[in-house]
Amino acid sequence: MKICITSTGSDLSSFLDPRFGRARYFLILDSATSKLEEVIENPNINAPRGAGVASAQIVAASGAKIVITGNIGPNAFMVLNSAGIKIFSGAFGMTVKQALEAYKAGKLKETGQPTSPGFFGRPGGRFPGGPPGPTTPPGPGRGRGRGRR
Length: 149
Prior knowledge:
149 residues, alpha/beta, 5-stranded mixed beta sheet
């Protein structure tokens, strides 16, 4: 079975990248042999928006059935989940090899929900669940529905 691990570099000694959608690399490994099968450089690292969805589509196309990462946003989570890919998040401060060993030892837990708020949960975003954004006091109205009684 293929496992995708987000990585800061292109080999097993590289550190796990805690970001899914903007991870530098996706390393595709064989779970039985722990052998590196494919290195995918993420073209979405500097995308202005939609990096999580586009990255999830790349991972799904690779044939991976499991993703190991630090955090994953709601849109990427939905794409991977609908593709039947299991997501293990929270793997911080370890190399790709250590993350694979932790997964095989049962030390990583499968996540059933996004672990970061994503674009619309950011301050000032349009999705509930994120902290409130900056507020601006209302203006004088200028005849746009702010009549006086």
